[in-house]
Write a structure and sequence with these properties.
- It is a single chain.
- The protein is of the alpha+beta class.
- The protein folds into two domains: 204 residues, UDP-n-acetylglucosamine1-carboxyvinyl-transferase, Chain; 207 residues, UDP-n-acetylglucosamine1-carboxyvinyl-transferase, Chain (Alpha-beta prism).
- The chain is 32% helix and 25% strand.
- The protein contains 14 helices and 23 strands.
- A four-stranded mixed beta sheet has the order 21-22-1-23. A four-stranded mixed beta sheet has the order 2-14-16-15. A four-stranded mixed beta sheet has the order 4-5-3-13, covered by helices on one side.
- Helix 5 runs parallel beside helix 6 and helix 8 runs parallel beside helix 12.
- The longest helix is centred in the middle third of the chain and has 13 residues.
- The radius of gyration is 21 Å and the shape is elongated.
- It binds uridine-diphosphate-N-acetylglucosamine.
- Cell wall formation. Adds enolpyruvyl to UDP-N-acetylglucosamine.
- It holds the Pfam family EPSP_synthase.
- It catalyses: phosphoenolpyruvate + UDP-N-acetyl-alpha-D-glucosamine = UDP-N-acetyl-3-O-(1-carboxyvinyl)-alpha-D-glucosamine + phosphate.
- One of its GO terms (cellular component) is cytoplasm.
Length: 418
């Protein structure tokens, strides 16, 4: 098991090139299974979750070509419609393999998905939506067996809760279904827009992605094509927080400021100078400690739950007091107790963290069980006095490409130790 060893405190300064979005790459890889010709995807992040998605698709029998700059997927040789137990449990997004299998081949088998243990994370909305479109789903213990008796048919589907994953499942299923599908109370996240743009580029007829009502006119066949995945807004936000907490200055390039509205707003409220251009964002603290900012996580365009852990750290070393309210997942404060061990002053009550900023953190041996919580510990290690060892870093490798190389390039003293 590798660990990250960090020596601090360091002030982080420089430029970071942002990778492609994890949460776009995963659904787009699975949506590629709908294409009848070869699909080539650019700007796919080199992260563990993508590796697992590629394994799932290869396991179906698809031919995948991995090159430095792109991934190509060719589906004509698919002969298996089954995601094995280990792969289903490896990533939450494995559930997104189900609807393309049903849409293209009329059947699919998968186990209940795994992923970060940040809450109950049910899949009822995926199942209910697919059932409304005519899919028969049998659940045998931990396994879902899905098949069609008649053709997949468009339907009007109201999402009881706003769900990114369920919106994507239904969107993918609807693209080649008979007739029209309307998803009401759809999630509006940019990764849904990215997935819809990709599908439209290979022949789908989707309108309204990015709003809470998405309409899909079923088409008979999808061709192949080339598509560039958008930049990762959460990786961008993570590096901006790194600059903020270290009293530094970081420019993120190859990114899209328009996707980070609420995050930039909050960073400006900390007192940092945040400038944006077409594809870059620069945060400069001018050597000042951030001011605390309270926030509530909510679906896009609200403050992203995937930035909550990093902003919790920010508040724990900021000037003043703040309250953080998590409304999306029930168990997403696992990083807080580790940060308290490093000298932070916080307490949790139900879905809120009450923070009282301290001037410095102290290096410790820490670990966390989810991706964003773990990255917040790495950032804490950059600014803490002395040595911090972060364990369980496989969580970070799931979602951040070359994080130690990028952090070193802005001055962090970080080593991966095997
Ligand atoms: C996606 C993102 C994840 C992000 C989350 C919220 C990917 C690969 N992951 O996860 O990084 O943190 O959106 O922005 O894109 N829910 C149900 N029933 C369902 C599905 C979800 O009740 O069938 C609930 C969940 O428990 C949660 C809420 O809906 O409380 C939102 O979850 P959802 O948007 O589905 O998250 P994911 O798609 O898993």
């Amino acid at each position: 098991m590798s660990i990250f060893q960090l020596d601090g405190p360091t002030r982080l300064k420089g430029t970071v090139f942002i990778s492609g979005s994890k949460n776009s790459a995963l659904p787009i890889l699975f949506a590629s299974l709908l294409a009848n010709d070869s699909v080539t995807l650019y700007n796919v992040p080199k992260i563990k979750d993508v590796e697992i998605a590629v394994k799932i698709i290869t396991n179906f029998g698809a031919r995948i070509t991995l090159k430095e700059q792109h991934i190509s997927i060719e589906t004509s040789s698919i002969k298996d419609f089954y995601v094995p137990h280990g792969l289903s449990k490896s990533i939450r997004a494995s559930i997104l393999a189900l609807s393309p299998l049903i849409a293209r081949f009329g059947k699919g088998r998968i186990f209940f998905p795994g992923g970060c243990q940040i809450g109950k994370r049910p899949i009822d909305l995926h199942i209910d939506g697919l059932k409304k479109m005519g899919v028969i789903i049998e659940i045998k213990r931990d396994e879902l067996i899905a098949y069609l008796k008649k053709k997949l048919t468009g339907a009007e589907i109201f999402m009881r809760t706003t769900s990114v994953g369920a919106t994507i499942s239904i969107l993918i299923a609807a693209v080649t279904a008979i007739g029209k599908t309307v998803i009401k109370n759809a999630a509006c996240e940019p990764e849904i827009v990215d997935t819809a743009n990709f599908l439209n580029s290979i022949g789908a007829k989707i309108t309204g992605a990015g709003t809470d009502e998405i309409k899909i006119e079923g088409v008979e066949i999808l061709k192949g094509g080339k598509y560039r995945i958008s930049s990762d807004r959460i990786e961008t936000g993570t590096f901006l927080v790194a600059a903020s907490i270290s009293k530094g200055s970081i420019t993120c390039r190859n990114t899209n400021p328009s996707l980070l509205g609420d995050v930039i707003l909050k960073l400006r409220q900390t007192g940092a100078n945040v400038q944006t251009g077409k594809d870059w964002i620069k945060l400069d603290t001018h050597g000042k400690r951030p001011r605390a900012v309270s926030f509530v996580t909510s679906p896009y365009p609200g403050f992203p739950t995937d930035m909550q852990a990093q902003f919790t750290l920010l508040n724990l070393i900021a000037i003043g007091k703040s309250v953080i309210t998590e409304t999306i997942f029930e168990n997403r404060f696992m990083h807080v107790s580790e940060l308290v061990r490093m000298g932070a002053n916080a307490f949790i009550e139900r879905n809120q963290v009450f923070c009282c900023g301290v001037k410095r953190l102290i290096g410790k041996n820490v670990s966390c069980n989810d991706l964003r919580g773990s990255v917040s510990l790495v950032l804490a290690g950059c600014i803490a006095d002395g040595r911090t060892n972060v364990r369980n870093i496989h969580h970070i490798d799931r979602g951040y490409e070359n994080i130690e190389i990028k952090l070193r390039s802005v001055g962090a003293k970080i080593k991966r130790i095997s």
